[in-house]
Amino acid sequence: MRSARNRSRTAFRSGVGLLAAAALVPMASLTATARPAAAPAAAAKPAAPVKPFVQGTQTVAAYDYDNAIHERVQVDVPGVDGDQNGITDQITVDIVRPGEAAAAGIDVPVIIQASPYYAGDPKSNFDANGTRQVFSTWLDNYFVPRGYAFAYVDMPGTFRSTGCSDVGADFEVRGTKAVIDWLNNRVAAHTPAGAPVKADWSTGKAGMIGTSWNGTIANSVASTGVKGLETIVPIAAISSWYDYTRSNGVPYYDEYMGFLHDYVSNDASPRCVAMTGEIEQDSDTRTGSYSRWWDKRNYRLDAKKVKASVFVVHGLDDENVKTRQFGEWWDELEKNGVQRKIFLHQGVHLDGFSFRDTYVNQLHPWFDYYLQGLQNGVTKAPQATIQREDGSFTTETRWPAAGAKNTKLGLSKPAGQTGGLSIAAPTSDPISFTGTSAESTDSVVLDPSAARTDRAVFVSNDLEQAVRLSGTGKVEVRVKVDKVAAGIKARLVDYGTATRYTNVTNVPNTRTCWGDGNALDTGCFADTKVNTAVSNTAVVVRTLADVGHYKKLEEKVSLQSGKWYDLTFELNADDVVFAAGHRLGLVLTVEPDNPSVPFTGATITLDPVKSSLTLPLTGATASLTAPEKSTARVQSTQLAQPEPEKDPVKLMEQFVEASR
């Protein structure tokens, strides 16, 4: 499919010729003075080509995908020589565009999916010249017949593009941005044979879409404010690489940044090998601290530069690219007045197409409005689409939900083992709990009334009516630690029996391909499965923090035994309804503070009076006004979801599979 088959572009002519006016010389009474010749009539503008793919305010499948033009170009990245070989970096782009539009002289906008993963895609087959023969997703199959071009971009330092990957920083961003500059005649490109080539078939308007790393690069390019990028659709995407690899100062894995660079740089053939060690060293896993090195990988810092509209798609159960990534990005976009939309589902690390019609029926008009200029009213449509716990979808005027109010819940400890969680003023003596050298598992939240020394549990009264969390919560704790270092994990728990639509997951290494080129049911996508569970315990949010970073993320300190420390950290964003009869729970545990440094365990002592949980809640919160008064055991013996994946290799498999 990536052959050099091209059709010559036929200019559309209206057939209207130029009209020339003769010079008139009128007679005068005494002296005859010739008047200057009249200016020629202005040339009539050629009529705009009729676009058969536009019907009213939407695009329709008017072109045959089998007639599409497939071409490859190599775009220069001015001023960048990442691999230091003395040659300007070049980005390889495979383009699919409607052949009938080219023949009729109709310019089309471009949807771009940039990726570091194309080298390892099992659906990519090549001829002897290295031309990709088979590579198709539902995206190009769906949009090319509707008057769009689609571009697959090999990110810098990956597959057939030169240069180096630098895991989210300048090389990747400037290299991918150059493709949009080429579409707008600001940089040069050539064919693989070396002939100059221009995108004279393009309107100059571009959108970017992608899942996981493919969506992350869309966020990063948008943060440059590049002209011509009209919209992005980041799906399960990263907005800060620091917060992807760390949680409030605690690295998730040892040497993870080096692992990421090695994976995308050395999959097909080793390149920029020395950078792997440099990136890992500069990322400073040993302390987990933030530094200016991360700034270029923190796109939230440049949210003010974003000119493109943003359609965020994310799974509320995504423990790979955690929900904080879209939550804080969304907040920054709102502060800067960026036009935006959000689609939240109950799945994990997934493309939105797993939800088929619901998702595509919103994505299609979004692109039509921003790339085709069709006045279809998408900016007046509800801002948020949210999949609820039972699998149904709802739409809302805004997100977080209108009326969500930050509600501060105090912590208290009654006579039993389970503490109280309520709006009432907190009361209690200090509470101690101990952790070992290993991370805790989600099973620690089960049976909250049982006596255990490895956790502190706080549970609300039974909810008389449903209460909804929508947005980003916050934990504030005053603690002292008997060791020089320790992490603390907060789990927000829904205690109560319910049938939940949970864990929409990818089936590893399987894909389904189908369709005739024009229908919605066309292309290839990662297979998924849906699990539903009847459960009395759901871990809603998991968030980890390093007590040693209590002052700021830029500085880790050694803790002094017996000294109280005040630590505040935000929870991962979420949107969940706690049903009537359920209870809210907060479970705190002691965790290793850094996987690169040996941890032998620690005991944390918590002062409940100086600690709290703040949640953005809507609904009837009256049940939360008084301390927990029921002494009945909370029946809790089953988890609603499996434990999150902790193996970096498995996480990378999710990255790759979700991106296809």
| Top-tier CATH class of the largest domain | Alpha Beta
Strand content: 25-35%
Helix content: 10-25%
Distance N to C terminus? 17 Å
The largest sheet is: 13 strands, mixed
Instruction: Compute the average pLDDT.
Output: 85
CATH architecture of the largest domain: 3-Layer(aba) Sandwich
Supply the number of helical segments: 10
Give the CATH topology of the largest domain. Rossmann fold
Q: What spatial form do the alpha-carbon principal axes imply?
A: globular
Low-pLDDT runs of 5+ residues are 1-36, 122-130, 514-521
Supply the CATH superfamily name of the largest domain. Alpha/Beta hydrolase fold, catalytic domain
**How many discrete domains?**
2
Instruction: Provide the structure class.
Output: alpha+beta
Overview of this protein structure:
This protein has helices spanning 99-103, 138-143, 170-183, 213-222, 241-245, 256-265, 273-283, 324-335, 356-372, 648-659; strands at 54-55, 58-59, 69-76, 90-97, 108-115, 125-126, 132-134, 149-154, 189-190, 202-211, 229-235, 246-247, 250-251, 309-315, 340-345, 384-387, 393-396, 405-412, 419-422, 431-435, 456-459, 467-471, 474-481, 487-514, 523-546, 565-570, 574-578, 583-591, 602-606, 612-619. By secondary structure, it is of the alpha+beta class. It has 2 domains: 54-399, Rossmann fold, CATH 3.40.50.1820; 405-646, Galactose-binding domain-like (Jelly Rolls, Sandwich), CATH 2.60.120.260. The chain is globular and about 85 Å long. The two termini are 17 Å apart. Residues 1-36, 122-130 and 514-521 have low confidence and may be disordered.
